[in-house]
Amino acid sequence: MSRRCELTGRKANNAFAVSHSHRRTKRLQQVNLQVKRVWWSQGNRWVKLKLSTKAIKTLEIKGLDAMAKEAGINLNHY
User: Fold this and answer.
1) Cα separation of 40 and 30, whole Å?
2) Global pTM value
3) Which one-letter DSSP state was computed for residue 3?
4) Disulfide: which of 48, 51, 63, 65 matches 55 by Cβ 3.0-4.6 Å?
5) Superfamily for 13-77?
């Protein structure tokens, strides 16, 4: 599985690691992903998702059904 948030689609960002002598080398800034069990009230069961911490915060405000609809995913497969 890729390192990507299943609800928001967030993924790694290309960046530079800058040394003391200001030499720049390529690096990746990874997303802070967490495996989270979320209660899906419409399906009356727990759903296990790989989410970014930003998505977890947004999930508390919007709700699981609204975010899944925006992302275009079917929660019956999770």
Assistant:
1) 28
2) 0.84
3) S
4) 51
5) Ribosomal protein L28/L24 (2.30.170.40)
